[in-house]
Amino acid sequence: MKIHLQTPEEIRPQIWKELGRASLDRHHEWRTPVLASADADGLPDARTVVLRQVDAVAGQLTFYTDSRSPKVAQLQAQASAMLVFWSARLSWQLRVRVTCSVITSGPEVEALWQGVKQSAAAGDYLSPLPPGAVLPPSSGTADAAKANAPAPTHSFAVLHAQVLQMDWLELSREGHRRAQLSANIWDWLTP
Ligand SMILES: Cc1cc2nc3c(=O)[nH]c(=O)nc-3n(C[C@H](O)[C@H](O)[C@H](O)COP(=O)(O)O)c2cc1C
Prior knowledge:
The mean pLDDT is 92. The protein is of the alpha+beta class. Strands 1, 2, 3, 4, 5, 6, 7, 8 and 9 form a 9-stranded antiparallel beta sheet that branches. The chain has 4 helices and 9 strands. It has one domain: Roll (Pnp Oxidase, Chain A). The chain binds flavin mononucleotide (FMN). Flavin mononucleotide binds at residues 32, 45, 47-50, 63-66, 69-71, 131-132.
């Protein structure tokens, strides 16, 4: 069902409501945004991630990742990043400018790891090789990679993205609408 909200006072909370829903509902299209960052040479890099937690009051989005993955080093060097969400159901694109911090140890990481380690995803964070490591030519299958013994310690990390600004675009037969918003600002833009 398409919703057609009119005012910033209606649209802004609905954006956060949809983000919150996406963090809880694996079928929500906003569950898997693209996170774009800059690599060491300033070149763009981007990948799909799963939205895990949303704190609308703090303006924070949380993701899980492997502390050894290239994106972590990128975000530690350049915390500025973009998240892009698209939902065909809503006809909404959301581009979110964020500043990222990655937490690799401490009570928050260990508390969340207690839950993740019971799940099917645990192996992702126990692999002996970091994500993106080059495998020998003969081991080009998932099975070969999995044959390696699991690492004794996890490399699970929590990625917090603090929202700075959003660019909301609604596609509609009645006319597309676009706005740029931050905590206290709402500017309508040409689509
Ligand atoms: C549907 C989907 C969901 C994904 N979710 C995550 C995730 O939540 N965290 C993560 O680190 N990588 C996730 N990945 C893998 C990343 O897209 C990426 O391949 C990997 O993290 C390595 O990225 P990097 O080399 O830029 O660090 C996901 C991939 C897909 C296809």
